[in-house]
Write a structure and sequence with these properties.
This protein is about 40% helix and about 25% strand. It has helices at about 10-20, 40-50, 55-65, 80-85, 100-115, 130-140, 165-180, 285-300, 310-355, and strands at about 5-10, 30-35, 50-55, 70, 90-95, 120, 145-155, 190-195, 205-210, 215-220, 230-235, 240-245, 250-255, 275-280. Helix 4 packs parallel to helix 5 (about 100-115) and helix 7 (about 165-180) packs across helix 9 (about 310-355). The termini are far apart.
């Protein structure tokens, strides 16, 4: 069976989707068209990949009859485009974050169940071979109990992103990876955000995730660092893994207590530095692997690796992180007002005392 695939969005990420799809064997995947309201971007995509182009995504869907549509548009348009695709009974690959709001996410899932279509969410780091290798080793208990996950996703401000903040745009990558690797949910969170460059949204996030298995996740994410950093460290009983998403390298730093049980370490004040090993990772392009997974799910009638429910869970945590900051700011504002009232009251009482 050959799948017809269309792409909505011909920006920087959309062009990557088109490139990967164009490289598939046409016996299995046929790229049938692209849509974008930006006519210059649309013409570039049409010329490069020799496909039909549309300024209206609805016309694209109607005329090309795709089995799968990849939605690669700004987050604020995710629900509008995705809901139309799903309502036509067409399977969907939706870039992260899933939607802008929780209400939109619930409605999209409801509509997908009603139309009996599959939704894959584009949390691309889940398909990073370095992440896959870490997952394999964690499942095999090679690190023992996981204590701490620390993600650093830093970089310059992207002018193209103006509809969401750094939490929804960047931190959602790390939230999804941490849920996957920790194999646990997040009942408690705490966050601090700041807005330094962005006109309307936060561009710095420091967050703490408390997982149900007692692991703690730390999010260090911003659009303020003049170099791109994409790292994740995982600390456990037997040492620490350090992952570089960009190079797909993984290193293991061993605790020098491998011959002892963890209970026996209670009398020690800390751990000791052991050997460092670079682990073997079979490198590959995550976006290609993401499409292979989605296509296999459609052909075999199975769930994609990153489901709509996964997208919903990540979106919920992201919104909780932002809301945590808002609540903290509201508390600070209340305290500032109370302090000002106390000062004014004291000043007024002092004047009354002087008059009397």
């Amino acid at each position: 069976m050959r799948l017809n695939v269309a792409v909505v969005g011909a920006g920087a990420m959309g062009m990557n989707h088109l490139r990967v799809l164009n490289d598939f064997n046409e016996e299995h995947v046929r790229l049938v068209g692209v849509a974008d309201i930006n006519e210059a971007a649309l013409r570039r995509a049409m010329h490069r990949f020799h496909i039909a182009g549309y300024t209206d995504y609805r016309q694209l869907v109607e005329e090309t009859h795709p089995n799968l549509v990849a939605v690669v548009v700004p987050t604020c348009l995710h629900f509008e485009v995705a809901a139309h695709v799903v309502d036509q009974g067409i399977n969907l690959l939706l870039e992260k974050p899933f939607t802008s709001t929780m209400e939109q996410a619930f409605e999209l899932i409801r509509l997908a169940h009603l139309r009996n279509v599959k939704i894959a969410v584009g949390h691309i780091e889940r398909f990073n071979p370095a992440v896959t290798e870490l997952k394999r080793r964690l499942v095999a208990r090679e690190l023992g109990k996981v204590f701490h996950l620390h993600a650093r996703r830093l970089g310059p401000f992207p002018a193209r992103v103006d509809d969401v903040g750094v939490t929804l745009d960047l931190a959602t990558h790390e939230i999804d990876v941490m849920r996957y690797l920790a194999d646990a949910e997040v009942p408690r969170i705490y966050a601090v955000t700041q807005r330094r460059v962005h006109q309307t949204h936060e561009d710095l996030l420091l967050g703490i995730l408390h997982f149900t298995n007692d692991a703690i996740g730390v999010l260090d994410v911003n659009w303020l660092t003049p170099t791109k950093v994409r790292e994740l460290s995982i600390t456990g009983e037997k040492g620490m893994y350090l992952l570089n998403y960009l190079t797909q390298d993984v290193y293991f730093y061993e605790n020098d207590y491998t011959t002892m049980t963890w209970d026996a370490l209670g009398s020690f004040t800390g751990v000791s530095e052991g050997t460092m090993t670079r682990l073997k990772v079979q490198k590959a392009e995550p976006l290609r692997l993401e499409y292979e997974d989605t296509i296999a799910a459609l052909l075999n009638d199975t769930l994609p690796t990153v489901s709509a429910e996964d997208g919903l869970a990540v979106l919920k945590i992201a919104h909780q992180l932002v809301e945590s900051t808002r609540q903290e700011e509201a508390k600070k504002q209340t305290l500032r007002i109370e302090d000002e009232v106390d000062r004014l009251t004291a000043r007024l009482n002092s004047r009354r005392g002087a008059i009397s």
